[in-house]
Backbone:
């Protein structure tokens, strides 16, 4: 299916919608999930317009995995959860709700991942405070 240029993450990348950013480089962006499943829930996206992992170039896939690794380490250090769960959905049939490739980075365990995702809006002040913690951890990796 053709990439939808009007999806929310495309708008965030163009600066048309705000996000609470924790990291950005030439190829990737990481920001707080607006409806976190757990405190510290962070998203990592490529700048390349790709709906799923099945559509992205190898180069952009490598860049997004590299950033995801770094963000996972920072989230683990900052939030001190039991560990870090990564998940990434490909296609509406799999449950993907935003059609721009993204990795979820969540400081939890599979057993604790009870709340369904994209359900409860996070308190912006709490999201910002968690972003600050993660940025601090990134800077000390
Ligand atoms: P998916 O269901 O596609 O795997 O996950 C999409 C994620 O994007 C959800 O966890 C949802 O909370 C998050 N999300 C949806 N809209 C926005 C938004 O406008 N800003 C941010 N930061 N996250 C969003």
Residues:
């Amino acid at each position: 299916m053709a990439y939808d240029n009007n999806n929310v993450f495309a708008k965030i990348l163009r600066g048309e919608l705000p996000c609470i950013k924790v990291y950005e480089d030439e190829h990737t962006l990481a920001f707080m999930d607006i409806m976190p499943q757990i405190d510290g829930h962070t998203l990592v996206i490529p700048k390349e317009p790709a709906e799923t992992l099945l559509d992205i170039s190898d180069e952009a896939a490598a860049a997004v995995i590299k950033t995801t690794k770094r963000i996972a380490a920072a989230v683990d250090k900052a939030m001190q959860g039991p560990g870090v769960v990564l998940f990434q959905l490909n296609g509406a049939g799999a449950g993907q709700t935003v059609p721009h490739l993204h990795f979820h980075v969540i400081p939890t365990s599979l057993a604790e991942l009870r709340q369904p995702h994209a359900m409860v809006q996070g308190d912006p002040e709490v999201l910002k405070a968690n972003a600050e913690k993660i940025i601090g951890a990134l800077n000390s990796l």
The helical segments are 8-13, 58-79, 124-139. The mean pLDDT is 95. The domain at 8-140 is CATH 3.30.428.10 (HIT family, subunit A). The chain has one domain: 8-140.
